């Protein structure tokens, strides 16, 4: 009835007898409550969000649906354990390509313990968080039915330079990829960039909608929270972003979440450059069409 | 010929025999080069900006005009010393109200020395930088010809809560103020908010234009840099913002300046709330008119 998820790319995983999330057949994702205050804080956030009538529905859709908590058998065989019951974000995709991006140059909040702050501070400096405003926490890219997935160890990517991150974001939406190549060694074609990143419902449009909310909202500050990007080559599988991991959400104390917003804007710039920079994937005709349309919108129709 | 500026609100000041900036009668501001690498780094930034043809003119106007460097007598009487020669930003104002706001939740850059990082890190945590994404570095508000200026010690404000910062930003544009009151004790009328913060050329519009550039530019990361806001009750003195202090500008390494951008968005939210929140200065008729116009723009004309 409960099984280990097929497509988890980051976070604690139920394998080798460890406690981790499980899914069922009906599209639910069961995340074990962490035993320290993180578990209760994540529940408190989901309950606050559920009752916050000032969060617009279109923004609420970027969070996993919350179905309360439930005692179910823990994946490590230790007996009943309380779990968050959430929407399984990837159950509707057949071969999902997934990227988990931890947003913010700072993953710690002022009220945390000194020990926790120092640990996060060190990690933020060692990874790309400090330089780029985010770090890649995990990813898988579907290559083909035969080759399966490219699923690099996150240690290979969370300390990446801007150049490497850009290449990973290109590889995420390219067709000329293999499961064993890294992200630095090919001129990726970005064949799926127009449909996945672009368009009025694509990932860039969704990120921009989320950004508008973050420019305004003063309810929550999200630390160590991720944007999950998911898509699939199946014709009816829409590309989507979701926010995940809320064990470190704190009250805003009257200011917007400038830390999350800054990192989000940095990610947006990376993705929008893939769509607009004429030097990125110069042979992709669909991208050239998008760029031409954007240039015309900016400077007006050419006179013939 | 050279004299100590009348209206400096932050930074090293030429008083008590210390070396500090001086001005002349022609509208120039002479800033002594700091003796360590900060001086040469600030010159290098101004030279880079001057030759960077990809910075739009409308954005360049937010920086002080740069006239090279010059050996002039230091204000501390120690003889000739190299100075940056810059536009005097307040020479065209008669009774300027000025606020110096250091932008960014983090004032240190990854390449700095460990000792410098730890010192800034401590200060960012002790002040409002961490919580709000900026801190008030200094300010003066013109009260009246008789009463002069309200010029609080910056120690009173750089550790402020969101509530206090909002009140300071209200007091900055109010007529019912005194020189000795603090910012917490009055219901300020925000009489000048529509003309100073609002309007198509007001401070909010300028901050939004700067924000657009920061969402895009990947030339510079600005650490420990301030936004200076200046205005004057004189009829022909336009409210203006300028960026100042570039001793800690570093290369972007391929990402936008998410740290500066996040703090700038936070400041923008504070100022836009003064213009739009119906609970802020509810008796200010000009503000009510602005809010009504914005509501109509959002939801359409009411039907009578």
UniProtKB/TrEMBL annotation, chains A, B:
EC numbers for this chain: 2.7.1.140, 2.7.1.151
Catalysis: reaction(s): 1D-myo-inositol 1,3,4,6-tetrakisphosphate + ATP = 1D-myo-inositol 1,3,4,5,6-pentakisphosphate + ADP + H(+); 1D-myo-inositol 1,4,5-trisphosphate + 2 ATP = 1D-myo-inositol 1,3,4,5,6-pentakisphosphate + 2 ADP + 2 H(+)
Enzyme class: transferase
GO BP annotation list: inositol phosphate biosynthetic process
Keyword annotations: ATP-binding, Kinase, Nucleotide-binding, Transferase
Record-stated family: Belongs to the inositol phosphokinase (IPK) family.
Purpose of the protein: Inositol phosphate kinase with a broad substrate specificity.
Entry protein name: Inositol polyphosphate multikinase
Organism: Cucurbita argyrosperma subsp. sororia
Lineage: Eukaryota, Viridiplantae, Streptophyta, Embryophyta, Tracheophyta
């Amino acid at each position: 009835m409960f099984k280990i998820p097929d497509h988890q790319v980051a976070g604690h995983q139920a394998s080798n007898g460890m406690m981790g999330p499980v899914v069922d057949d009906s599209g639910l994702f069961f995340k074990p409550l962490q035993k320290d205050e993180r578990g209760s804080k994540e529940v408190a956030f989901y309950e606050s969000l559920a009752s916050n009538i000032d969060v617009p529905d279109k923004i609420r859709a970027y969070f996993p649906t919350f179905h309360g908590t439930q005692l179910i058998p823990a994946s490590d065989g230790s007996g009943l354990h309380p779990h968050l019951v959430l929407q399984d974000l990837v159950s509707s995709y057949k071969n999902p390509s997934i990227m988990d991006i931890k947003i913010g140059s700072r993953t710690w909040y002022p009220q945390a313990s000194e020990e926790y702050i120092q640990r996060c501070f060190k990690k933020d400096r060692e990874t790309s968080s400090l330089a780029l405003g985010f770090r890649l926490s995990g990813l898988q890219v579907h290559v083909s039915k035969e080759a399966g997935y490219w699923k690099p160890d996150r240690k290979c990517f969370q300390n990446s330079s801007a150049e490497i991150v850009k290449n990973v974001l290109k590889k995420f939406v390219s067709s000329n990829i293999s499961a064993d190549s890294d992200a630095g060694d090919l001129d990726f074609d970005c064949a799926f960039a127009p449909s996945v990143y672009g368009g009025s419902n694509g990932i860039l449009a969704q990120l921009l909608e989320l950004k508008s909310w973050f420019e305004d909202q003063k309810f929550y500050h999200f630390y160590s929270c991720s944007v999950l990007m998911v898509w699939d080559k199946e014709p009816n599988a829409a590309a989507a972003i979701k926010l995940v991991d809320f064990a470190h959400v704190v009250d805003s104390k009257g200011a917007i979440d400038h830390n999350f917003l800054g990192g989000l804007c940095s990610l947006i710039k990376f993705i929008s450059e893939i769509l607009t920079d004429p030097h990125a994937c110069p042979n992709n005709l669909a991208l050239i069409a998008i760029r031409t349309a954007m240039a015309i919108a900016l400077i007006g129709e050419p006179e013939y």
